[in-house]
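FW: tagging you since you asked about this chain on Friday. Here's the raw sequence from the shared folder, copied in full. Didn't touch anything.
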Amino acid sequence: MTIFSEATAVTSLGEGRYRAGLDEAFGFETRPGGPVVLNGGYLMAVLMRAAVAESSHAHPVSTAVNFLRPGLPGPAEVVVERRKDGRTASMLRASLVQNGEALLDALVTTGTLVPAAKPVYLGEAPAPMPAPEDCPTRGRERPKKGFPANVDMRFDPAVMGWLDGSPTGRPEMRAHVRLAGGDHPDPYVVALAIDSLIPVVTNAGFPGWSPTVELTWHLRTLPAPGWLTVHGTGRMVSEGWCDEDVEVWDAAGNLVAQSRQLARAARTRE
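HL: got it, structure written out here
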């Protein structure tokens, strides 16, 4: 089992530069025995650790990321530029670079959240999902390695009909998520969770890889220990483009994070 905090660790090289080692434990084989491509949420977590290390605030409250190239296991570097230092918020620009090319470019806003803070207003929670023990793992049973071996995901059976050729017809996906080692979630685990779902367009009849182009997400509170529940929906699929809105709720019923992303629906509808 790979420890997530170690797999996302960065080391300061001075002058806003940080060394990172991208870990294949949070990637997927593009084909059996083929190259490993790393999960986008994992790459965001690495980048965000460097941004927070460069900031005077403790938490990444807003992150807007352009995904430029797939990330591969191996050495990488994060370059961080301070744009504004404020009393309640700081803004930084960060790039995750590998082999001389940027993989991710991001604007990160940092602040300091108060643990267990109560919202003044909170809209309705999504409809409850079945308990994790009543939800299947990702896809059909097969030997687990990489991301599936290190991230425990339990999908709502109601959105898994696409496996047998019976998608719901709506862009939607839901799952309980936690690290396979059972470690408690933190903001960097939330970054992983927010980009962990099978693409919501799978249930609209667009199976296969749906590469993210841009993703913006907000950390709303610090997560309680236990499972995270991730709810994903989409609004429109058109001309090969699709959107995905995600909410992450923790085991105590708190809204932890919200995101919206623009992605490609890479394959023709079947």
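FW: The chain has four helices and 15 strands.
HL: agreed, and The longest helix spans residues 40-54.
FW: great, closing this out.
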